[in-house]
Amino acid sequence: MPFSLELPKQLAKQGWKVKIRERERTEEPHVNIIRRTHTWRLGLRSLEFLDRTPSPKDVPRELLDHITAHADRLRAAWDRMHPHNPVVETEDDDA
Length: 95
Fold this sequence. Notes:
alpha+beta
């Protein structure tokens, strides 16, 4: 089941959604920012956009601030959903 971050009423009213989808387990850990038919991917490690299109400039600062404020919660949700691809990579391979 996908994880959805609750948004302030004004952003939700404008049609914004923030989700972690189930079938993206092999991709860089990210959250999907969705509005209508557009989807932006924001990396959970760097909190930077992973794609150039659609333009990251179209995402409101208030929404990015909300995601940043809940980054730990989003990272924990990703790790629960995709434990084989955690946000924080371990260096156990060097042992």
